[in-house]
Amino acid sequence: MIPFNKPYLTGKEAHYMYQAVFSGKISGNGIFTKKCQYYFEQRYGYKKCLLTTSCTDALEMAAILCDVKPGDEVIVPSYTFVSSALAFVRQGAKIVFADSMGTNPNIDADKLEALITPKTKVIVPVHYAGVACDMDKIMEIADRHNILVVEDAAQAIDSYYKGRPLGSIGHLAAFSFHETKNIISGEGGLLAINDERFIRRSEIIWEKGTNRSEFFRGEVNKYGWVDTGSSFLPSEVIAAFLYAQLESMEMIQNRRKAIWAKYYDGLKDLADMGLFSTPEIPTYATNNAHMFYLVCRSLEERSALITYLKEYGILSVFHYLALHKSDYYTRHCADRPELPMCDHYADCLVRLPMYYELSDEEIGQIVEAIHDFYSKI
Ligand SMILES: *Cc1c(COP(=O)(O)O)cnc(C)c1O
């Protein structure tokens, strides 16, 4: 059986977790947390980084920092994970769903302007599969209308837009270390703060609405309740796990990229015949090999392919039911937007197994099974 995902362990996780446990400090914001945050600030140039317990939490922090209030509108692609929208809904925002591009599932920046109203407060570009949205276009529109941009970079670690790291372009950005992502800590996330206006408040929101971080730096002589917030910070045990992964970033990324290239080469003949499309990486974007997907010609063909692969012991999955058609949204919002590209990806996209330990032989088996499937229809 070839699973869809298998969390990769570098071998040093338990060692660092042991160190964290026996250091006598296992709550948050200790040595490993600082090491991880420093890693991201140094390597990618984010002005300030805070580890969180998930990307969902980082997005919730972003929604608070953007001061999203009831009545505000937030533009989110419909083809994304629930959290991209839910984090803002919890602040009372009305979600305005945007369609995907024809060439990839990212938000269509050319259709963005039409969705903006005087109430629009935030745009949330999601870098699907770690491939950049067209950030110059999005930032230009946002600046012109005085709108904040929160990058949902959950899948976008170590990926770039015109040479700039994803997560460094919007005012704020959220990353995920969920076990299905490239770099993992089981559950985990990171908020990157690029607009300096948000730095002081971000630490307070992170620490349950207290100015505890300033107190520990000796900047104030007592700490107390100064703002809203929650317990968004992970324990040192989680940060220790994550640090082991970060040390192996290069190795993990190189192997994933090799897997991606093997899929791409192995399936190119079928893609050229028009039987499905493979991911298209725009010239402004890099590929961090988070995901390898096919876009089939129809829902029926996709279902048949998934079933066929399963008979070979290969687990492929589809995902993202359109959020604008979700049970929750349709119960709470009267809007019924037409988002044909989103519907297309929701019906036709299938993700192939993608994880560090996937062997060349297994990739060969998967590629062969897909050839078999298409030779029979
Ligand atoms: C994985 C993912 C999330 C959620 O991440 P968690 O760390 O599980 O909260 C949010 N948005 C996108 C696009 C994701 O892929």
UniProtKB/TrEMBL annotation:
One of its GO terms (biological process) is polysaccharide biosynthetic process. Keywords: Pyridoxal phosphate. The modification N6-(pyridoxal phosphate)lysine is found at residue 181. The active site is at residue 181. One of its GO terms (molecular function) is dTDP-4-amino-4,6-dideoxygalactose transaminase activity. Pfam families: DegT_DnrJ_EryC1 (PF01041). Belongs to the DegT/DnrJ/EryC1 family. This is dTDP-4-amino-4,6-dideoxy-D-glucose transaminase.
